[in-house]
Prior knowledge:
The complex is a heterodimer. Chain A is an all-alpha fold. Chain A contains twelve helices and two strands; from the N terminus they run αααααααββααααα. In chain A, a hairpin with a 3-residue loop joins strand 1 and strand 2 (189-190). Chain B contains 13 helices and no strands. Chain B is elongated, with a radius of gyration of 24 Å. Chain A binds chain B through residues 11-12, 14-16, 18-19, 22-23, 26-27, 30, 141, 144-150, 153-154, 157, 161-162, 165, 264-266, 268-269, 272-273, 276, 287-288, 290-292, 294-296, 299-300, 302-303, 306-307, 310-311, and chain B through 139-140, 142-144, 146-152, 154-155, 157-159, 235, 238-239, 242-245, 255, 258, 262, 265-266, 269, 272, 276, 279-281, 283-284, 287.
Amino acid sequence: MGSFLLRRSLQLIFVLWGGATLLFFLFYALPTNPAEQFASGGGNRAPDPQVVANLEHQMGIDKPLSEQYVNYMTDLLHGDLGTSYVTREPVSDIVAETLPHSLRLAFWAILVESAIGISAGALSARKRNSAGDWVTTITAVVLSAIPVFVLAYLIKQVTGVYAFQHDWPEWVRFPTLGYGPDEYALGVVPINGTWRYLVQPVFVLASVGTAILARITRTSMLETMRLDHVRTARAKGLTEKRVMRKHVRRNAMIPVVTVIGIDFGTLVGAAILTETVFNLPGLGSQIVNSAKAFDAPVVLGLTLIVTLVYGLASMAVDISYAYFDPRVKLGDD
Amino acid sequence: MSDLILTPNPVPPPDVNASLADVGPSRSLASDAWRRFKRNKLAMFGLVLVVFLAVVSLAGPFLVQDPLDTSGLAKQSPGNGHLMGTDSLGRDVMSRIVYGIRLSLFIGIVVTLIETFIGILVGAVAGWRRGWVDSVLMRFVDVLLGIPYLVLALAMVTIIGKGVAAVILTLAVTAWLQTARNVRAGFLQARETEYVEAAKAVGVSSKRIMARHILPNVFQPVVVLAAVGVGSAILAEAALSFLGVGVKKPAPSLGLMISESQSSFSSAPHLLIFPGLAIAMTVLGFLLVGDGLRDALDVKDT
């Protein structure tokens, strides 16, 4: 276990260093000079050379590229992600403001999609070819074909805009701008009406994963139910409930957990789109706005943070294998 | 080969009295795969969708009006000379969708061609040369795979900028990783086989062995990844354009149309519904074809 964690941590550090280096040189070796860009108001007027020089000095891009790289990496090791070109705000402050919102959203989405997706898939597998099975399968296919942003926007328009215009009962009306009163218990549980702001984005974000999880759980359960040890368990007279709980479900969870882990990348993409549609001040919508403004330090810093979270998530998935399958010993290879 | 035994429709036992002429024509891998593909209803449905969209994007432009023509009345409901209504500038929605599907398919196919080419090249070199070349290339792949897809695409947008060419470049650069991994695994396996050894022994050049002897044998996962890849590239283009960092206005991109329709949903919901359906149809078509190919070609783990 210890050596496993060490090896995976080193891998993650390598990926972070590689990503930072690659993007750094791509961003900063560009022919377009960001100082000139900002001094000219995006190319609208001839830039004043003195202003450009000052800006270059402020941004630290008047030094040779190698020196900038060494500076950036040294700062990075000290937890300093640089400063925004646009707002002059430290990137770490931006991360501190936006990351909690995104993590909360992801937390609830994963919780909801695991609960609904896994139980729908398991039910589907046990009552194979029943009406419920067909409904689950078809819903899953349809949901995976609808782009996230179309779904997000449709839901926002119906329960967020149309419902208010036509005085629908309160339980189907949800506010769509931002997060409302920023009040959480224990860091994640929304209180005092904040939950009303979370309902729609969480629903949208979870629907993507629910579809995938339902499908994987169904296939995996069906395959496990055909295995010898399950037949043996039935033959020795265990109740169906016990067979399912002790012998099928736990074994069938391995591919499911893998999907939750791999799917984190999809979740990040979906979160970016969802946050943008619902105007949530999360990390995803911040990356989009910074990319639009060509604010390289912010894009680079946020990309590294997302990569870090992504890496930690897949590490957690690998650790959970050992729980679901006692044959898996971490650190043996 | 296990599929000789497991063919779902077994060939009837040979007639003892049959002459050689009665034996059916020899079956290639492709015709075998096609037979299996045809039996898969979902895959055939996907293929019908894809063919339909291809016909629409090739023949459509001769049948509909100019997608940039703003002479119509704004936000007309479907019907009345505009089968799918008009948008907020009075442009015909149907012709914008036809051109939008055309643009989507174009971007999807070009991205996939570039991505497959890079993937095969990198994977083949890494798997054939092994050693430090392999290590360097694969660590590079690991780094890029560690960054979530859309985030990497947004970072690329910051570097390259907007427009059709930028979107194609962005998506191609971010999409070749899986192909490279699969091709590399195939090459590592194949270079130990006897037929490669035989080719080496008779003095065939490395390049020729790679291209003519190994590549055809590792091509199946590449085909599957390419089919799925067209769908994902189309979806990614729509997402980038929707976010405002993809194709530039006034190009008829489906993602852009959806983004533009946001301000007028309650008065003109058809501006969301038709482009939304068009994207869903396109993506679904390629997904189903990809799934079907995976089963038909018996590819695991892509």
